[in-house]
Amino acid sequence: MIQRHILLMDGPDHKGLIYQVTRILFAHNQNIIRNDEYVSPSKYFFMRTEFEGETDIDKLMEVLKSDLPAGLNLRINPKKKKDIVLMVTKEHHCLGELLIRYAFDELDATILAVISNYNTLQPLVGKFGIPFHFISHENRSREEHEEAILRTLDIYRPEYLVLAKYMRVITPNFVDHFPDKIINIHHSFLPAFIGANPYRQAYERGVKIIGATAHFVNNDLDEGPIIAQDVKSVDHRQTASDMATLGRDTEKGVLSKALKLVFNDRVFIHGNRTIIL
Amino acid sequence: MIQRHILLMDGPDHKGLIYQVTRILFAHNQNIIRNDEYVSPSKYFFMRTEFEGETDIDKLMEVLKSDLPAGLNLRINPKKKKDIVLMVTKEHHCLGELLIRYAFDELDATILAVISNYNTLQPLVGKFGIPFHFISHENRSREEHEEAILRTLDIYRPEYLVLAKYMRVITPNFVDHFPDKIINIHHSFLPAFIGANPYRQAYERGVKIIGATAHFVNNDLDEGPIIAQDVKSVDHRQTASDMATLGRDTEKGVLSKALKLVFNDRVFIHGNRTIIL
Amino acid sequence: MIQRHILLMDGPDHKGLIYQVTRILFAHNQNIIRNDEYVSPSKYFFMRTEFEGETDIDKLMEVLKSDLPAGLNLRINPKKKKDIVLMVTKEHHCLGELLIRYAFDELDATILAVISNYNTLQPLVGKFGIPFHFISHENRSREEHEEAILRTLDIYRPEYLVLAKYMRVITPNFVDHFPDKIINIHHSFLPAFIGANPYRQAYERGVKIIGATAHFVNNDLDEGPIIAQDVKSVDHRQTASDMATLGRDTEKGVLSKALKLVFNDRVFIHGNRTIIL
Amino acid sequence: MIQRHILLMDGPDHKGLIYQVTRILFAHNQNIIRNDEYVSPSKYFFMRTEFEGETDIDKLMEVLKSDLPAGLNLRINPKKKKDIVLMVTKEHHCLGELLIRYAFDELDATILAVISNYNTLQPLVGKFGIPFHFISHENRSREEHEEAILRTLDIYRPEYLVLAKYMRVITPNFVDHFPDKIINIHHSFLPAFIGANPYRQAYERGVKIIGATAHFVNNDLDEGPIIAQDVKSVDHRQTASDMATLGRDTEKGVLSKALKLVFNDRVFIHGNRTIIL
After folding, report:
1. Mind listing the pLDDT tens digit for each residue in D152-167?
2. What is the pLDDT of residue A193?
3. Which residue among C96, C103, C256 sits closest to A124, beta carbon to beta carbon?
4. Residue A53 and residue A101 share a domain
5. Is the pLDDT of residue B191 over 60?
6. pLDDT at residue D220 is higher than 80
7. CB pairs below 8 Å between B and C: how many?
8. Beta-strand relationship, A44-53 and D109-116
9. What is the extent of the structural domain holding D31?
10. Does the beta-carbon distance from A32 to B18 stay under 8 Å?
11. DSSP labels for B11-52?
């Protein structure tokens, strides 16, 4: 039967790279459905090729590796839903959005479980028949807490971990278990506000625009590669609480958009930037 | 010396098209700077390839034509500024924007002349040392008027004709002189309003958003392929005149954006749609 | 105990109207929390005054009526959640958004029931413990179907009826039961597309922006006073189905925004326009 | 003859303030054209009242001062164009936008002169017949340079000073000459980038949105009260230079919008925030 795959390739640019890849796919009777590539000003090459046809993917990969210049990163993913686990704290807005999309098969992913350091959102998750793991951080050191979460994640082995308003700092050790596989949604403003009560800070600063940023988590929590951002206009009549409400709507929209891109294998990470093809 | 060129290609999709084109460019020692393509759901193929190197472009074109499947549209343009003529009536906002950009070499085009059916804008154009042709429509039939304009255009032979708020309907005969080479800016709303005083209509309708559309002119004046659109929010406090002011700002921004895309050979026309690579 | 109220007033403008109203509220020991007004270019006056204090509202209303010029529309609403009924067909996106907001007390309204001409969404509504009435239109004339719906609405007597993607045309007779109390969400584009498969039409037209409009329903279904509109950018890569997905996100956001305004008594209807204070 | 005026008032809220003001205007036969007010959560009151009629404004002001509670800031401005001076360095985009608007009487202000620390933009300003003062900072201490500028400003005595991409830091001493009268346009991003080459920084950071902020200048250059902000979306294909181009378009739009608000006396400064009525 015909399976669709996605070839992801990045590395230093070489003359004729597209030519070689398309030649090889062509020779393996693969039909290119969509091909996108980008070469950065610093001559770094990125290509995403969606193709389908009957073939032995392992053999295809072998040929690609042997025929293409060394130093390229090559991956071939079958086109399928990603397995994910959500981590949340007490806020429902991003979680609710993802659950509704999931319930109607619009998420391009399978939510294996939801993990939270509070049980606040258990009733909501329960409505959708998804396992909810309440792993309190109380009376636990950060390391103990993360160990407990990691043990639970071991059960599910998700391809991606989505921090849908998980309000605890996570340690480098935790991040190292999921390199480039953790996605976070961050309220961030023009200018960005760090620390507690950002909407109060934004209100005090009198900003006219608030926004949100979805990004991969590296070891600098709010500083990983940005996947998507959006903003909404505000004015002086909006209180800090109005801004928080509007901010939550922005956050859920941005997170959904970012996840759609990631789950469709459209996002490359390059240094601290993302290339979206 | 090394010249940069842009290959534009579209037609029915074939397996390995990218492969063949890149192979040929490769064989002619051309370095691909940027390559973008798109295949429509109906399997129509579009490719824009920016490349540079020393070669005989005519010979390259011959090879492309002979080696590639029949039925493809192929063009190779040198990467250079386009020669354009602007047509205006009495409104200055789009014209002023384009003149300032031109004065500081930001337009990707050379304004050869400005033609108007009124002399209202002659002083503004004069400031920038560009020929201004006042060709009144008074005491002339539409055909006579267009003939006079065409005679003037014959002097300049522009690659593109930009209707920067030219408020006269143009005839199919006129359009036929510049197939896919006339760009118009059109106020258009949500919903779109036809006919006189559109901002008054928008006000009466109580729309919360106004917008503008830049499009190619075919023989259905406000209905050609859309190149760019943008909108701005309004509320009940804005009068019809406020909306007109805001609308003009939107129009000039949308027209500038559309021209940048067209002048960089990034816009394909396909039926009544544009494909922008 | 102190109750907060909202005075809504509109009519022909008179010198000193604000003065008289504030004087009367002042004399009744009411503290004005927020006062907004607007006078249209045609000298029509609108005022929304939020106030609180201990008083007999009926007496206050009597005084307002007797002291203010004749011909003004006056209403005083207690500041409270509105009772609403939702009508849906098969699409879940707006319904899901409203249910999640309702579940977390963010809707400024109480959802008394959901009525649908299909049972598709019954499971979703069931998760939230809200009565779901499946009233099929099959084997019923339009009049019989609407009669059945009206009988059900009689049980709940909602203050507002929200058509959250209810895809049946409703008759003038039905609308007359809820004058200015029915809110609809309508996909609408730049330009607006009428009839079946609007996103397909938008795709064929090659629009660069799609949008949605929330409006009151009068007897011209997609033509009532507009409450809120929003748009999203699209490009040629988006299929009609991608546009539909993006359109649904836009629809749910616009509907939520419009409902927040209406449920907070901030929307005046004036002819075919809305004044939002 | 009938002159239109604008009353601006702010201070601690008192019961019945609107009532008293409208009563007094009413008693002086003034017709209120438009009245907007806002009371902050911390009970600080702001009101902008546009009115017209025949009266002695000084007498009216006396009555307002004597009848209204102490501690209110009261100003009455005739509704007229503001006199302004622009300060620029080498970038033309904001200047060009303002000159075109000025040339067609759309600026709500009279540009008395343009001052620059370079002569780069003299030709552009010259086209519009506006005095251009080239005051180089070379071979001058910062104090000497500012003294020279202040001497020139003394000739014009502008009501507002617009920094339309004036790229020198100005000293507290300079700012003190124009308290709340200097408006600056600042590139600022999500997150905000400080220091040299902000668009390069934004590119390196891989932001998906860039923006601009127009603000009053207090003694913390990029930190004064924000008047207007806007953003544009970008993606990985945009180079730092593309972002700079798009950023310039955003800057000129935001500055124009902010100036329109300020020149129409619609902006109150309250601490580090603006209230726009």
Report:
1. 999 999 999 999 999 9
2. 65
3. C103
4. no
5. no
6. no
7. 82
8. unpaired
9. 4-78
10. yes
11. EE--TTHHHHHHHHHHHTTPEEEEEEEEE-TT-EEEEEEEEE
